[in-house]
Specification:
Number of strands: 36
Number of helices: 21
Shape: globular
Domain PcRGLX/YetA-like central beta-sandwich: 135-491
Distance between the termini: 55 Å
Keywords: Signal
CATH class of the largest domain: Mainly Alpha
Protein name: Tat (Twin-arginine translocation) pathway signal sequence
Number of domains: 4
Domain PcRGLX/YetA-like C-terminal alpha/alpha toroid: 498-907
Largest sheet: 20 strands, antiparallel
CATH architecture of the largest domain: Alpha/alpha barrel
Strand content: 25-35%
Signal peptide: 1-29
């Protein structure tokens, strides 16, 4: 890690007080005090399930987000929900963003699994219906008790029992919910003669009730994994419970804070103890398989024996019902029950994306036998009896391998049910850097190596310290062993939690997320572009499966560049490997969803947001708030930048789902400008080799890639109703840039951390790069200028947009110097389109369409937009190949989408 000077530490400490106020907001922040004088109101909004149809089960309940046009509804508006048939549905609502006039911009809504379900709903301003059950939350110094009306869940405020008990009808279904972690001191691939191993338990540090009903309660638990004096692997848990439901959703986040050379995680899981009741033959185990399959087992089976207990007995056991009185059986079985083995331990392990294996054994000290196997398990298990039991599962189970569902001790009084997010049966988690540095000891050597592998290496910068991973789990406290059909329904809800969603038309009419419009194939020219947008999106979605871009640390990301000689993405070539949000892939995927409303597009973008917001960003340590540039390892490249941790990429999933963890990530970034106190992003460019001792009044924060990312965090904090200084810093910084001699292209500017302003010398000078606006700057400026009345800021930004792809003579006339040979001109066609609209200039609109079609550094009209099949033996297995790269797809997608929205009527 980088040494931090005394001055930097002191400056950071002085700024920390202000930063704390800026980031210590709560999810229930009050609406702005400004109230619009006249509200237009809003008609009911139709909401449908994302995947269509009517889901058979929910994962306890669900939450989703809805946008509202500016000036339509008051900031504290209540809402009612009803099915398409008019049946009232109890709903809980909370605001997540407001317009500058105080009117409502975004709301989040929650419904329970127990609520009436239909294919669609109508959300209407008004009073919500009351349900038969409402959440009750009781707090005292030692515990928090949540009663859904069906189950009661007790959370401990200290100790290692995160969930002390889950009760139903006065009976304990599960207890001692806890976090477990194992480590060893060497990698499995480099094991020495002796290997040190340890086990850790999650210890509660803080419990917060974030929501308390009436439909949904959210309990946040923070802590660390401990053994003896050592505390590591900090965690944040959020449990969501729903009125009238027996389901509990858990969003589990842990942070890496160990030594990658000596801390190798060998198991990471969540475990509950389940009291076992009844005879061994009335104890049941269930595992879900692909395509609705269910493996149904009993701890002591009475089927398939040499002697038949009777059809009624066999049928009852297979179906999970209590067996008839043994006195009614064939007594040749009854008298010999003790000779039938009791299978107390069961495991479903998904160690890769393409296969799982189920095994069982009678108990510790005895061998495992294979029960069955398959391809991709949806990740749900059950242990219990006809009098109740626990279903336990994990979302994206096979995608986030190596995972496991384990049951132990089912033949005793108490079984343990564990969801392993990292299976102990897998190799130890190895987070070490993938090469030894290859003697890249100086900046010149590192820059020379960059010329061949595109990897920006620097010793000590490939650390995973501070990265995180979030996993979603679901538990059901069931009154009885579920039927196979019901268990399959729960497995589907666990694997793909049903989500209500508004239409592209409503989202667009609400005026959120800047320049985009729903799919429109009304002309041949529009249809051609729409076909191309579909083609590049479909290609990248399909590549995930064809190339098996799965795994605990990888799932959600895509690769950067393609190696046509090997018919392989460049997974092993430095900076050409994992994409890590380079050139705004996240933005492209979210805008594609907004336009199409396609479920697969949503799930693709959601998985990327969950990955890039956690794995590709530091959440602890001195680099907190910085993301890592693309590379072979997600955290491996030495370029640590806010353009990757970018709040502009996180906003979509937060507003569309109400996910609190995504809200955490956005709030984390509000003071990310402070990262320039600890790291000089331009150190290799300016040759800085000494101690970094920055001047807080003159930091080297760029006005484009850096400021655009920080501005997105400020904008989001402002509209979420957070600290008002976020708005002040956003506007102060934008005004200061506009006041520079050449605004966004002025050379030699520096940033004052205290005032959030940029300054430079009085003379015009030009400094502009092709990457300046392709990390969300165009998008955040579009939104900002729609929110505020800042004529000077708008004028200078429109000037930048007009000039980027203009002639050198025009650039020189406006800024005193031409802008050199700029790249990515297709990407900037959307900037030209924006200027065309703001200046009402048809010639600029025509120029923008020509820039998009020419495809400089992107996809020209004349290219081959199709894919071709590559068959073995040229490749390991059949794959599709095309002339696409992730960066070019993202920028073509964003440019085409915004040009269609801005100047679509000018397309001939």
């Amino acid at each position: 890690m980088v040494d931090v000077s005394r001055r930097t530490v002191l400056t950071s400490a002085l700024a920390a007080g202000a930063a704390a106020a800026l980031s210590a907001r709560t999810a229930s922040a009050a609406a702005p005090s400004a109230v619009p004088l006249a509200l237009t109101g809003h008609d009911p909004v139709d909401v449908r399930w994302l995947e269509g149809g009517t889901p058979a089960a929910l994962a306890g309940g669900t939450t989703w987000g809805v946008p509202w046009p500016r000036g339509a509804l008051p900031g504290d508006q209540r809402f009612a929900l009803a099915t398409a048939a008019g049946e009232a549905v109890p709903v809980q609502t909370w605001p997540t963003a407001w317009w500058p006039d105080g009117s409502l911009k975004w709301t989040a809504h929650a419904v329970s699994e127990s609520a009436p379900r239909d294919e669609s709903y109508r959300l209407t301003p008004g009073a919500p219906a009351r349900g038969a059950h409402e959440i009750s939350v009781q707090e005292n110094p030692g515990r928090v008790l949540v009663d859904t009306g069906v189950v009661q869940v007790e959370f401990g405020r200290q100790g290692d029992k995160v969930v002390r008990a889950i009760r139903r009808g006065g009976q304990v279904i599960a207890k001692d919910g806890r976090l477990v972690a194992h480590r060893q001191d060497s990698a499995d691939t480099d094991r020495g003669a002796t290997v040190g191993v340890e086990s850790f338990s999650g210890t509660v540090g803080k419990v917060t009730v974030e929501q308390s009903g009436p439909v949904r309660a959210v309990i946040k638990v923070e802590g660390t994994h401990r053994k003896g004096r050592r505390a590591w692997l900090p965690f944040v848990l959020r449990f969501a419970l729903f009125a009238g439901s027996d389901g509990i959703r858990l969003v589990h986040t842990f942070f890496v804070d160990g030594d990658e050379d000596s801390d190798f995680v060998t198991g990471l899981g969540v475990r509950f103890t389940v009291p076992m009741r009844g005879e061994l033959y009335d104890r049941h185990v269930r595992f879900a398989g692909p395509d609705g399959g269910v493996l149904a087992e009993a701890v002591r089976g009475v089927t398939g024996l040499r002697r038949d207990p009777g059809a009624a007995v066999r049928t009852a056991q297979v179906e999970g019902r209590a067996l008839p009185d043994p006195a009614t059986w064939d007594q040749r079985v009854t008298t010999r029950l003790k000779w039938i083995p009791a299978w107390g331990d069961h495991s479903l392990a998904q160690l890769n994306a393409h296969g799982f294996e189920i095994r069982k054994r009678t108990g510790a000290g005895h061998s495992w036998i294979r029960s069955d196997a398959g391809t991709r398990a949806p990740g749900l298990g059950y242990v219990g009896s006809p009098s109740g039991g626990l279903a336990f599962g994990m979302r994206n189970f096979w995608q986030l391998h190596p995972t496991e569902l384990e049951i132990t001790g089912a033949a005793t009084d108490e079984a343990d049910a564990t969801v392993w997010m990292w299976s102990p049966r897998a190799e130890a988690m190895d987070l070490r850097f993938y090469h030894d540095g290859m003697d890249q000891d100086t900046y010149p050597e590192q820059l020379d190596a960059l010329e061949i592998t595109y990897e920006d290496y620097e010793p000590g910068f490939g650390t995973p310290y501070g990265v995180a991973r979030t996993t979603e789990l679901t538990f059901w406290a069931l009154a009885a062993t579920p039927t196979a059909a019901r268990f399959a329904e729960l497995a589907e809800a666990n694997a793909t939690p049903p989500l209500p969603a508004g239409s592209p038309g409503h989202h667009h009419a609400a005026g959120v997320f800047g320049s985009w419009s729903p799919v429109d194939r009304s002309t041949a020219a529009r249809a051609t572009i729409e076909d191309r947008l579909d083609a590049i999106h479909r290609y990248h979605v399909e590549q995930v499966d064809q190339r098996s871009w799965y795994g605990f640390w990888d799932y959600g990301d895509v690769m950067h560049s393609y190696d046509r000689d090997r018919h392989q993405w460049s997974y092993d070539v430095g900076g050409y490997a994992w994409d890590n949000s380079e050139l705004s892939t996240d933005l492209w995927l979210w805008y594609h969803y907004l336009r199409t409303g396609d479920a697969a597009a949503f799930r693709f973008a959601e998985a990327m947001s969950r990955h890039t917001g956690e794995v590709d960003q530091y959440h602890l340590g001195e680099w907190k708030g910085l993301g890592t540039r693309h590379g072979v390892l997600h955290w491996g490249d030495s370029a640590k930048q806010v353009r990757i941790s970018n709040a502009n990429y996180r906003r979509f999933v937060y507003y569309l789902t109400g996910d609190e963890r995504s809200g955490d990530l956005l709030r984390e970034l509000v003071d990310s400008d402070r990262t320039y106190l600890v790291l000089n992003a331009g150190r290799k460019v300016d040759g800085s080799t000494g101690e970094y001792d920055p001047d807080p009044t003159a930091l080297p924060l760029s006005k484009t890639t850096d400021w655009g990312a920080v501005a997105g965090a400020w904008l989001t904090e402002w509209e979420r109703g957070g600290d008002p200084r976020a708005r002040e810093r956003l506007l102060a910084s934008a005004r200061s840039i506009a006041a520079l001699p050449n605004a966004w292209v002025q050379a030699g500017s520096t940033y004052d951390l205290e005032t959030a302003t940029f300054s430079s010398g009085p003379q015009k000078a030009v400094e502009v790069g092709s990457l300046s606006s392709v990390f969300g700057l165009i998008e955040v400026m579009t939104e900002l200028l729609d929110l505020v009345d800042e004529p000077e800021v708008e004028a200078r930004w429109v000037e930048f947009c007009r000039l980027y792809n203009s002639s050198k003579a025009e650039q020189k006339e406006a800024t005193g110097s031409d802008w050199g040979s700029l790249n990515l001109k297709q990407s900037y066609s959307r900037a030209t389109a924006y200027a065309a609209v703001r200046l009402d200039d048809d010639a600029l609109a025509a120029r923008a369409w020509k820039e998009l079609a020419t495809g400089h550094a992107g996809y020209p009209d004349g290219m081959d937009w199709s894919t071709r099949r590559i068959e073995p033996p040229a490749v390991l297995h059949a794959v599709d190949e095309a002339g696409f790269s992730s960066n070019a797809s993202a920028q073509y997608g964003l440019a085409a989408i915004q040009c269609l929205a801005l100047i679509g009527e000018k397309l001939s």
